[in-house]
Amino acid sequence: MENKSFEELMAELEEVVRKLEDKDASLEDSVKNYTHGLELSKKCNEILTTNEQIVVKKMTEAGLEDFKVE
């Protein structure tokens, strides 16, 4: 998972969601998919946070301190 891009991770997360929506999936498979989805979500969040920090730093360096992240 470490070397995958944000877009690849999101595509994989979307596939996990599709699997979770499958009403015929076993409980065991659903729990495994849910756990994997949480891991993917965490990694995506880490990537977004890192990139947000880069953007804020660049904007601050450019004199755009009024930029607010919510």
Quick synopsis:
The protein is mainly α and 70 residues long. It is built from 2 helices and no strands.
Could you describe the 3D structure shown?
This protein is mainly α and 70 residues long. The chain has one domain (6-61). It is built from 2 helices and no strands. It has helices spanning 6-21, 27-61. The longest helix has 35 residues, at 27-61. The protein is elongated. The model has no long low-confidence stretch (mean pLDDT 91).
Task: Record the SSE blueprint.
Elements: H1 6-21, H2 27-61
Helix pairs in contact: 1-2
Write out key terms for the chains shown.
about 70 residues; single chain; mainly alpha; 2 helices
Residues in helices, as a percent range: over 70%
Low-confidence stretches: none
Measured between the Cα atoms of the first and last residue, the distance is 28 Å
Radius of gyration: 17 Å
Q: Could you give a short account of the major beta sheet?
A: none
- Spell the H/E element sequence: HH
- What best-fitting shape do the alpha-carbon axes yield? elongated
Total count of helical runs of at least 4 residues: 2
Return the average pLDDT rounded to an integer.
91
The total tally of domains equals 1
- How much of the sequence is in beta strands? under 5%
Structural class: mainly alpha
Count of β-strands: 0
